[in-house]
Specification:
Largest sheet: 7 strands, parallel
Order of helices and strands: HHHHHEHEEHEHHHEHHEHEHEHEH
Distance between the termini: 29 Å
Helix content: 40-55%
Strand content: 5-15%
Oligomer: single chain
Length: 355
């Protein structure tokens, strides 16, 4: 079942006619829907209060806390969709990978994957491994009603890069060394990660998520030919695995202007665009049959209200000819962003695009 067909689940039915879901299906909307990547979390004072003394990964395993943090930006900003509060490494932690999210650094893996023997660390993910996700989404859908909940997962390439590098990287030298030097090991690694990602997305969808987004945050480090040969098959496997679930699928990466066409080919219904490529040009690169999501530069929110409105108007103007458009930033909300600027931005987009 595609995102354009009537979904089967109760929660999807409750959210089916929302502006966000209509935009994903490239149908007429009452206004351009808005949500923000990383809206659930670090820029909100109520988030910091709720998470006081609780490590990041632990906070992702507490259903009531997850529900509260996910709901905070919906209450404050009146966004058109909630995004599940979690992290892309949560399924890796759930299957026993020794990793932690270190403040100011990011995910750090104790035993990086560098050899075929290391693949033994990657067992299949079961719903029981992440039962807290099912419980949290149950709490959320009861509260959200007709507001869609977006589930998400990391794409195989980005997860592989973390696992191989052992943490964040700017060069991806170890990951690319395996990709170029041992393509068989690379393919097997990404194939296992595609299965884990697919299973994690299915848990969220079956629990009630109305849509899912796959983050390939590091894919912008790749040349198009390398992406097509070494990454596209695994990403396509993920989107194919959840195709029959009846929910919209979003594909997003940073610095992926040269890859937009290929990311569209991977199989998502919506392609996320960062701030580097105007949406009208992005639509040309992606081709017909896809909605687009984006793409205000997150740093614009540190400027004056007038400047934010000017740059937002540019995004909306570039989106006028699109088949479907979901307004978002070109990357996640930055930690020092004034929450009030996000609230004003949502209201501005809704007002300017009211039909």
């Amino acid at each position: 079942m595609s995102a354009n067909q009537s979904p089967a689940g109760h929660q999807q039915t409750a959210t089916y006619d929302s502006a966000f879901m209509k935009a994903c299906r490239r149908e007429p909307v009452p206004h351009t829907p808005v949500w923000f990547m990383r809206q659930a979390g670090r820029s909100l004072p109520e988030y910091h209060k709720a998470r006081t003394g609780i490590p990041m990964l632990e906070s992702c395993t507490r259903p009531e806390l997850v529900a509260e943090i996910t709901l905070q930006p919906v209450r404050r900003h009146k966004v058109d969709a909630a995004v599940y509060y979690s992290d892309i490494v949560v399924p890796l932690k759930a299957i026993g990978i020794d990793l932690d999210i270190k403040p100011g650094v990011g995910p750090v893996v104790a035993n990086p994957i560098r050899t075929r023997a290391d693949l033994a660390q990657l067992r299949d993910l079961t719903p029981e491994d992440v039962s807290y996700v099912t419980e949290a989404i149950g709490l959320l859908t009861a509260e959200l009603g007709s507001t869609p909940l977006i589930g998400f997962a990391g794409a195989p390439f980005t997860l592989a890069s973390y696992l191989i590098e052992g943490g964040p990287s700017r060069t991806y030298e170890n990951a690319k060394a395996i990709m170029y030097g041992d393509p068989e090991l690379w393919t097997d690694l990404l194939d296992r990660l595609a299965d884990i990602t697919s299973a994690f997305l299915k848990v969220q969808i079956e629990a009630g998520a109305s849509a899912v987004q796959v983050f390939d945050s590091w894919a912008g480090a790749l040349a198009p030919a390398d992406y097509r040969r070494s990454v596209l098959p695994a990403s396509s496997k993920v989107f194919q695995a959840v195709e029959g679930c009846g929910v919209p699928r979003i594909h997003f990466g940073v610095g992926t202007g040269e890859l937009l066409g290929l990311m569209g080919e991977a199989g998502a219904d919506v392609v996320g665009v960062d701030w580097r490529v105007p949406l009208d040009e992005a639509a040309r690169r992606v081709g017909p049959g896809k909605a687009l999501q984006g793409n205000l530069d997150p740093t614009v929110l540190f400027a004056s209200t007038e400047a934010v409105e000017t740059k937002t108007r540019e995004v909306l103007d570039a989106a006028k000819g699109l088949e479907g458009h979901i307004f978002n930033l070109g990357h996640g909300v930055m930690p020092n962003t004034d929450p009030d600027s996000l609230t004003r931005l949502v209201e501005y987009v809704h007002t300017q695009t009211a039909r």
